Amino acid sequence: MTDTIAAIATAPGQGAIAIVKISGKDCLKILQALTHRPHFAPRKAILVDCFEPSGDLLDQALALYFQAPHSYTGEDVAEIQCHGGVLVARLILEACLKAGARLATSGEFSKRAFFNGRMDLSQIQALQQLIESQNASMAKAMAKQLKGGLKDFVHSVRTALLELIATAEVLIDYAEEDLPENLPEMMCAKMRPTLEKLQHTLEVSKAKQAQLEGYTLSIVGKPNVGKSSLLNALLLQERAIVSPLAGTTRDTIEEVIYLNGSCVRLVDTAGIREGADVIESLGIARSKARMQESQIILALFDLSHALDDQDMHILDLLAKQQDKIILVVLNKSDCVKKLDTPALLEKLPFIKAPPLVLSAKGSPCLPLIQEALAPFMQTDLPDVILPALSQQEALEATIAHLQEATKPLARLELELFAYHIKDALESLARLTSPYNTEEMLGVMFSKFCLGK
Ligand SMILES: Nc1nc2c(ncn2[C@@H]2O[C@H](COP(=O)(O)OP(=O)(O)O)[C@@H](O)[C@H]2O)c(=O)[nH]1
Ligand SMILES: [Mg+2]
């Protein structure tokens, strides 16, 4: 970490501004070479001209200088906010490299922040999840953890476990006959709130996993019920081809919309039916696979037709997807009704939500779907949530060690009890402090984008 690193921190593309970041001891020197300006007051936005080493002017930009240790990485840091687009930031970065910086690797700024004690592992992870978050509540929860919410949680559990060890160690010095009779119960009772807290956090974290990743919603039904029409209505654009010919949609069509505070990937699928040709059959297989991967299914039926074998086949498929959020949508409400709705619903006793009656062709569908799904997409999140698998594993290990600790208690083996609690403490520490191997840190930071 002795060299100075630089990278473009913003996404490539036609944005209005782009940011080049520099960190390391030569930061000021590079800034001076780039701008021909001798002095930079820390934490002040300064309008600068940026030059190539040849002397050619590259851009007019805003430069910000942060003096170590008061910076993101804990080192000298500079940010150059230049004009966006694909080229300007690249040229400025190249000028920085020519002036002595080295191109940063993915996540290297955050890695330096970590090694310089600016952030612990829980905060680094929260930061990554904040960037990845597809859901407003998850993003808010991660922002709290970035500020240290998870660190505080770990600290409170740690304090409780240390107290347990302290109690055990005092009692170890007692002769066996002097130990309180109810010792196992007493210690278990002392441990219980912590154990319950950890178990609850683990449960919630697993259950809310999908919220970090956003939802996938697939629109399924037999051909011609109006799936593509509904997709178009939800996207407010003619994205999919709509036609009265059965089998028009042969591939899955996917677009992301923002619904009830979440990014939702909408999937329009090929109508599911028997006896389709080879290409359509491939599309149907894909539809079924996407349906299985979805968290939400809109099951479409056509009000203008009586229930037939193809609908029955859809009903069979739905019966195998009972763990999902399924909404029955009765389409073509503008037509003469031939569908026996009560008979249909009778076959779907596992669906809790009332069916939604609409016309994909005629009426605005987005508010209706949004409202119908709102109760199932509720996003109350606790302050502490651990979306990363490695975090959940650390929590699981902590819980397992605590459970293991109760066994020697029954035999009044306090040393062994304390030993297991120490193991629990070690597992818990994986949430906030360095992993013991460089390799694991490497894996973690490599997931970061360049410039973070
Ligand atoms: N009357 C009426 N026709 C509809 C409605 N929704 C779709 N259609 C028509 O039904 C046919 C099939 O629609 P499409 O969206 O391609 O169905 P898909 O095969 O399920 O994707 C087209 O002719 C649509 O115009 C609706 O709400 N009312
Ligand atoms: Mg279609």
TrEMBL record:
Species this protein is from: Helicobacter gastrocanis
Residues the entry annotates as binding (6S)-5-formyl-5,6,7,8-tetrahydrofolate: K21, E79, R118, K452
Amino acids binding GTP: 224-229, 243-249, 268-271
Classification via PANTHER family: TRNA MODIFICATION GTPASE GTPBP3 (PTHR42714), TRNA MODIFICATION GTPASE GTPBP3, MITOCHONDRIAL (PTHR42714:SF2)
Places the protein is found: Cytoplasm
Chain positions recorded as K(+) binding sites: N224, S243, L245, T248
Cofactor binding note: Binds 1 potassium ion per subunit.
Record EC number: 3.6.-.-
Gene3D superfamilies (alphabetical): P-loop containing nucleotide triphosphate hydrolases, Probable tRNA modification gtpase trme, domain 1, tRNA modification GTPase MnmE domain 2
UniProt xrefs under InterPro entries: G_TrmE (IPR031168), GTP-bd (IPR006073), GTP-bd_TrmE_N (IPR018948), GTPase_MnmE (IPR004520), MnmE_dom2 (IPR027368), MnmE_helical (IPR025867), P-loop_NTPase (IPR027417), Small_GTP-bd (IPR005225)
Keywords assigned: Cytoplasm, GTP-binding, Hydrolase, Magnesium, Metal-binding, Nucleotide-binding, Potassium, tRNA processing
Xref: HAMAP family: GTPase_MnmE
Membrane-crossing residue ranges in chain numbering: none
SUPFAM superfamilies: Folate-binding domain (SSF103025), P-loop containing nucleoside triphosphate hydrolases (SSF52540)
Record's protein name: tRNA modification GTPase MnmE
Residue sites binding Mg(2+) per the record: S228, T249
Family statement: Belongs to the TRAFAC class TrmE-Era-EngA-EngB-Septin-like GTPase superfamily. TrmE GTPase family.
Main location (coarse class): cytoplasm
Subunit structure: Homodimer. Heterotetramer of two MnmE and two MnmG subunits.
CDD domains for the chain: trmE (cd04164), TrmE_N (cd14858)
